[in-house]
Amino acid sequence: MKTHTLFSTATMALASSLLLATAFGQERPAKRNRDFNPEATAAATSFNSFTTGVKVKVKSASVAKDGTIVAQFTITDSNGAGLDNAGVLTAGPVSMSWVAAYIPNGQTQYTAYTTTVDKATVNTNPSQTQAGTDAGGTYALVDAASGTYNYTFGTKAPVTFDATATHSIGVQASRNLAAYGYPTAYTSDTVYNFVPNGSTVKVVRDIVTEAACNGCHNPISAHGGARTEMAYCVLCHTPQSTNPDSGITVDMKVFIHKLHMGSSLPSVIAGTPYWLEHRGARVDYSKVVFPQDIRNCTTCHTTGPTQSNSWATQPSAVACGSCHDNVNFATGLNHAGGPQFDDTQCATCHASTMHTEFDASVPGAHTVPNNSTALPGIVLKILKVTGATPGNTATVQFQVTDKSGNPVDITKLTTFSMVLGGGNVDYGTGAAGIRVSEKPVTQTGATLSGGTSGIYTYTMFNKIPAGATGSYTISLEAANTVTLLAGTTAQQTATDMALPYEFYFSVDSSPVVARRVVVSLANCSNCHQNLGIVHGGSRGNTQECVICHNPTLTDGTSKDTVSFASQIHSIHRGANLANPYVLGTTNYQSILFPGDLRDCNTCHVGSSYEVDNVGAVASIATPGEFTATTPPIAAACQGCHDDKATASHALTNTTALGEACVVCHGIAGQFAVDTVHARVVPNSN
After folding, report:
1. Would you call 193 exposed, middle or buried from its count of C-beta atoms within 10 A (0-12, 13-18, 19+)?
2. 380: closest CA among 407, 349, 362, 361?
3. Burial classification of residue 212, based on how many CB atoms lie within 10 Å of its CB (0-12 exposed, 13-18 middle, 19 or more buried)
4. DSSP state of 611
5. Phi, psi values for residue 459, rounded to 5°
6. Inter-CA distances, 304 with 37, 210, 212, 260, 307, Å
7. Helix and strand element counts for the chain (H, E)
8. Which of 213, 352, 549, 589 could form an SS bridge with 580, CB 3.0 to 4.6 Å?
9. Which ranges in 350-495 belong to alpha helices (H)?
10. What was the pLDDT predicted at 446?
11. Residue 45: pLDDT over 60
12. pLDDT grade, residue 24 (50/70/90)?
């Protein structure tokens, strides 16, 4: 344990300001956009030096015969040194909250010993007893150097508690270093499982991993950000917990399903909002839009957890009814199987193993038609481009097969298009900029031949611009409407989507230069699963999106830019924009991004978000915004930071020579993108 010297109030104030400069000046992450954990070194504070961070770990726990619950734990900084929870011997007090719960034998969910009584705050609904955190507990120091303590719960288990059942202790710790210039508390949470009689833990509740949640949420956190472990969440979000204001259960399996279903809930569609009141704040989940098909159960229920397959193996009225909330299992309303008075018969019809897609099994019933394995698939490939010189038409040889390699007759497809764009520095811009789309099957004035082995030759109708230089792009896109299980009661219509194929070529014998890669389709798919749903299912590749969504494209109604960088930033910023982003009749102000927009690598590839790497690209047409055109760096930034002050700042720092953004916001700048977007890591687990 480090020693300390007492300073006067004035000296402490000076120390705080010095440490603030140390933490957020010298320790800025120079070339990182991801989270960073600044560690203070020598600084003029009441401590010779200290390390930030906090980690709590429960080492053991017991329940005495009289129901007394005791947990032994450690609290340490990010270097593993023990912390004083009072903040006297080490910097910053550490506050903790504790939960004690058990899984009754023969059951799969927790019942909490620690409960609170919550009163309704907006109506006269009766109060509800809910799982919650302990009150009245006491701490006893065991070893200062290691930060070891005993915590005795204020809540006692009943003397009749089952000593053979799995018990769990959940704790969250929050270290407050605000006095030393750190505005964000450092937090940690953990869960310890044990059986009071000393036997091995055999029953756990392990359904979903944080990694699955973080595919979108980056990171998952709740109640101020201190609770990040799903094992902790389920200790309180139990069947015993009901929100008193709404009268709605906050049992995890119901709450999470309904929250993510949001605007698609049958009850919400019928006019009943889904909302909860927590500590006087009402949260309405009725506008939540899941960013992919909600039937993709395995987006959250990934492999890994002990009970990862419970979504398929344990159907129940409560779990299934959380999404299908227009089903009345007691009366049989909207349930093909009629009334079901308990869950004993659920698995009879809703088996865990799918026999055929769209059958009554749990996986079968959740088959997404567009993901059906019965779809033949469409695989596109451009073999070569000839004649693509300035002022002439390009002849394209391409191949179309199904996923088994069989040739596909493109005249039978619902849509088949060829997109020509250039130059590749920024599509559609400059005197020789072009962006056209042709349909080889129906294009007047062009020729299509071949088809043997799925190989076709097509001469485009539109010409390469006469003044073209450098590299251009041709992209193929295709989709087909397919009827699955035709003639049966399970008949489904699906869209068989091809992944667009881009082919880069030179129009003047100069080296071929591909269009820069800024975002990753794989990153988009973490949340969206399949971007092909956009534009009828044929345009599911970001490298094709930018051909049309180039600096020249604006919305015909709002006049807002539809350039890819600006559009995607604005859509995802959604509800937090200063001004509504509207395209046609669609207002994206209701969009709630589930992650943290400061983490540019959620979407971006490598350092492509850095202003240093924008390169020689064109200004953006912005007739509906503050200026008729906006330089490229400013346009990208203003996609999120869309207020007038930011636009004015950018305009002030733009001259006839171009944008000066890199001076301050470049990789080596004082206000580098990595610095202003960096997140101090609050969680130290």
Report:
1. middle
2. 407
3. buried
4. G
5. -100, 120
6. 28, 11, 10, 22, 8
7. 16, 27
8. 589
9. 362-365
10. 86
11. no
12. very low
Please tell me the total number of residues recorded for the chain in this structure: 685
Q: Cβ distance 71 to 151 under 8 Å? A: yes
Contact predicate 134/153, CB 8 Å? yes
Report in angstroms the alpha-carbon separations of 619 from 181, 544, 600, 659.
40, 20, 22, 11
Region class of 560: left (phi > 0), else alpha (psi between -120 and 50), else beta: beta
d(CA 391, CA 389): 6
The DSSP secondary-structure symbol of 384 reads E
CA 198 to each of CA 62, 99, 100, 136, 195: distance values in angstroms, whole numbers, following the listed order: 9, 20, 17, 27, 5
- Residue 331 is predicted with a pLDDT of 97
Question: Mean per-residue pLDDT for 216-243?
Answer: 89
pLDDT score of 549 more than 60: yes
Q: Which two tokens stand for residue 537?
A: 């299912």
- Taking residue 159's Cβ as centre, other Cβ atoms within 10 Å add up to 9
CB 50 within 8 A of CB 177: no
Strand ranges for 23-165 from DSSP E = 55-63, 68-76, 94-103, 111-112, 115-118, 128-131, 138-143, 148-156
Report which secondary-structure segment, H or E, holds 523. helix 521-528
b or e along 405-443 (b: 16 or more beta carbons within 10 Å of the residue's beta carbon)? Answer: eeebebeebebbbbbbbbbbbbbbbbebbbbeebebbeb
Q: 407, 380 in Cβ contact below 8 A?
A: no
Q: Tokens 């700042």 — which residue?
A: 649
Given a cut of 90, whether residue 19 has pLDDT beyond it is no
Are 402 and 491 in contact by the 8 Å Cβ rule? The answer is: no
Cβ(422)–Cβ(502) under 8 Å?
A: no
Q: 300: closest CA among 243, 259, 240?
A: 259
